[in-house]
Amino acid sequence: MNVKKIRPSKYLRYLYPLNLFGTQRTKEILSVNPTAVSQREEAADVFVTIYDYDTGHIEEKKLTGVSGCLSYKSSGRISWINIDGLRKADVELVCNHFEIHPLFAEDILSTNQRPKMDEADNHLFCLLNMLYYNNENRTVEQEQISIIIGKDYVISFQEDAKRDVFNPLRDRLRSNNSRIRQRGADYLCYNMLDLIIDNYFLVMEQLGEAVELLEEEVVRSSNKITLGHINQLRKELIVLKRNIPPVRELVNGFIRSDSDLLEDRTTKYFKDVYDHIVQANDLTENYRDMMINMHDLYINNVNLKLNEVMKVMAIVTCLLAPATVIGGIFGMNFQTIPWLHNPYGFFIAVGFMLLIPVWMLWVFRRRGWF
Q1: Architecture of the domain whose range is 308-366
Q2: What residues pair up with 147 in beta bridges, in sequence order?
Q3: Domains of the chain: which residue ranges?
Q4: Superfamily assignment of 16-29+37-301 in CATH?
Q5: What is the mean pLDDT of residues 343-349?
Q6: What secondary structure does DSSP assign to 129-154, as a single string?
Q7: 361: Cβ–Cβ under 8 A, 6 or more apart, which residues?
Q8: Is 351 helix (H, G, I), strand (E, B) or coil?
Q9: What is d(CA 280, CA 115) in angstroms, rounded to the nearest whole number?
Q10: Nearest one of 144, 184, 178, 179 to 164, comparing CA atoms
């Protein structure tokens, strides 16, 4: 009979308060070295979704390889090629066929990149992260997406094939009367950026609810577990801080760009996205300030509890002082002490030991000391 060996440390570590501070999560968030060669794992499966459309017609196609999307370089209509799952050979094949700059291919395959926008060789390139909130782990997860705008096509590279924020965009593309079917590739890119940034607000809304619950917890009871929750939430706000402000520069790059790939009438839409990302950045700063204030509130509550304990101890010490003095005086080893042989001396001494503290309590209470 095989008996599974139980490791107490596996379960006791959850009882140790310092494990609430999540040092492993800190390493995940802060371990970024842009000079190191990224070791991206090759995707097990690659899924390609193609939307080739114009005003009156749309073709939707799903492929399991990138070779089938190469013919859409000049289809005569607007093409959105979405590639889920990154492999170095596939990315290089697509970039070489569409004549995309090699630096863009390196950025697509890189990890932990800062959101940015660039243009070269008749292409516009932007890289940013889609954010998701994991309710089970109470963490903010991020997925890198790279978007390339060319002549009548948009190519997007995603890491995870199971989720993204583009379902509303797909529904609009399938609608014959949608505005996106009547516009160019730049308008398609605008819609993609708009959905990514709008999803930031959904993530921040869930974080805001966590902040409210944590604020109630801090006010109600401040302990090491509460401090661990504060520390955990502050780390998730770091993820927002690292992703949202750079996107403002990214969108501003589209507004200032003089590329022929961007129509003048699309600029106002990018300005609307810019307003949204500025608002998201301000909201992130507000959450950051709230967490700082919450940490200060936690420290103040801990100090207040300590002061209450010291106050009680000080009062108890003062109340016991008369008994200590009386007992010390009548406990001295002298032959002549007043009332030493009085038959009622013990009761008189005990009476004073009780009456004086009662009188002191009345004085303390009258002066409002407790």
Answers
A1: Up-down Bundle (1.20)
A2: 126, 156
A3: 16-29+37-301, 308-366
A4: CorA soluble domain-like (3.30.460.20)
A5: 82
A6: EEEEEETTTTEEEEEEEEEEEETTEE
A7: 319
A8: helix
A9: 15
A10: 144
